[in-house]
């Protein structure tokens, strides 16, 4: 069996280059699955868990159903930020291409990705992250936080980005637990990016909405749905939750689409 005409969309990085968030704004692009690219007013770019290749299918048999927003050789960023080692978050085929071509300056992540760091010879540009230890970039501070993704991924993490006037919580892969609540609640995020597929140790739409509401987030951005058939995801449930209670507001992004927002979150 052979598949032909595998495509990816064109022009994604041009949109990133042209985005110019103002001093109190950020630009946020959805790469698909749990991948996002963030651009700061200083022009710094952070790619979080980008998944663009067929590496997941090679390792797990899960076939991507949505074209990648760009080719592996096109994605560029200053910081490549990894939450954990699962194939749809650490896309090894993508990262190998990016490393060979110098498409990122640094790679940050938990100790669980060190075998890959060593395999690709990235020791000089790798920063090992630990829970609650803040790392600074021009215009943003990144704090790794606990993620409850099961016993097989004990070092999985989420991230809180502090842009001074906006705080963004990227949950990574996680279920709801008292430990998760304790790790994130006191950081007071304005925006939450959360999985909604409800399988493989992740929040479902109702849990994601309720947790965002519990944190008093103004915005919820759903992710981790419809890339792979096996992962599932019922966004209609999230729409129903929003009808019952309009805060947090759900911001839906098309894959490849960007959203520029400031302190007023509009």
From TrEMBL:
<dbReference type="Pfam" id="PF13483">
    <property type="entry name" value="Lactamase_B_3"/>
</dbReference>
<dbReference type="InterPro" id="IPR050114">
    <property type="entry name" value="UPF0173_UPF0282_UlaG_hydrolase"/>
</dbReference>
<dbReference type="InterPro" id="IPR036866">
    <property type="entry name" value="RibonucZ/Hydroxyglut_hydro"/>
</dbReference>
<protein>
    <submittedName>
        <fullName>MBL fold metallo-hydrolase</fullName>
    </submittedName>
</protein>
């Amino acid at each position: 069996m052979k598949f032909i005409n595998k495509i990816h969309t064109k022009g994604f990085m041009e949109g990133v280059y042209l985005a110019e968030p103002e001093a109190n704004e950020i630009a946020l692009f959805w790469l698909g699955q749990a991948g996002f690219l963030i651009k700061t007013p200083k022009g710094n770019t952070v790619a979080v868990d980008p998944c663009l290749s067929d590496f997941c299918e090679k390792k797990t048999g899960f076939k991507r159903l949505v074209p990648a927003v760009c080719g592996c050789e096109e994605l560029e960023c200053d910081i490549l930020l990894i939450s954990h080692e699962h194939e749809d978050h650490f896309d090894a085929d993508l990262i190998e291409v990016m490393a060979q071509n110098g498409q990122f300056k640094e790679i940050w992540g938990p100790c669980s990705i060190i075998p890959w760091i060593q395999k690709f010879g990235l020791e000089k540009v790798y920063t090992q992250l630990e829970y609650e230890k803040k790392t600074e970039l021009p215009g943003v501070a990144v704090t790794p936080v606990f993620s409850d993704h099961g016993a097989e991924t004990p070092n999985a993490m989420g991230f809180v980005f502090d842009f001074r006037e906006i705080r963004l919580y990227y949950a990574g892969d996680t279920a709801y637990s008292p430990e998760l609540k304790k790790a994130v609640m006191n950081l007071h995020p304005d925006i939450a990016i959360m999985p909604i597929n409800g399988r493989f140790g992740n929040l479902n739409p109702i849990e994601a909405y309720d947790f965002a509401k519990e944190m008093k987030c103004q915005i919820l951005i759903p992710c981790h749905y419809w890339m792979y058939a096996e992962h599932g995801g019922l966004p209609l449930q999230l729409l129903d939750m929003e009808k019952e209670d309009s805060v947090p507001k759900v911001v839906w992004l098309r894959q490849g689409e960007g959203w520029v927002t400031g302190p007023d979150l509009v």
